[in-house]
Model the fold of this input.
Amino acid sequence: MNTSVKRLTIGAMMVALSVILSLVIIFKLPYGGSVTAFCMLPVCLFAYNYGLRWGILAGFALGILQILTSTSLGVSVMMEDFWRFAAMVSLDYLLAYACLGFTAVMRGKMKNERVGFALGICIAAAARLLAHAVSGYIFFRQYAEWFFSQDGFSFGLWILDNLSGQGLAIFYSFFYNASFLVPETLITVIMGLALFVPAQKLINRS
Done:
């Protein structure tokens, strides 16, 4: 089989598997964002095996499919301000998921390949968090004070006493997005360490 065709085929399979896993929700945040059954893992595996360019391409494809399957993207929002909607999904989906390709930067950098893969996942997740945080700051920073003033959120009151303005908005965006992406990353790393060897054998056999 032609090398490019093989990579496209395996990439398509990994993207499809990521989409399926993204539908298995472990918990969902009330205002967007959810922790899934390690949906990042298949694309991260593909990126680690086939390199940065192919990994970014697979992540970008996953982002497109996430847009198409998302129930949180309302048509009314798109019709109200198409360019705002386009910018938001570009950051939160296309760029954020393309960042999964950065898993590849750790390939061959560690003697223990499993550890290298786990670190690659963390780097990719950090890049994805940055994309989400930029989107959150641009489009949702007006909710920062309201978010931290909710009843029963004692930590939020401390934040409001110590942060305001731009600092509060930036912290809010990182905090909110990290609240689902950090546990998602931990689950992905754990499963990645557990499945790395059999997954590598399956990909190489393919």
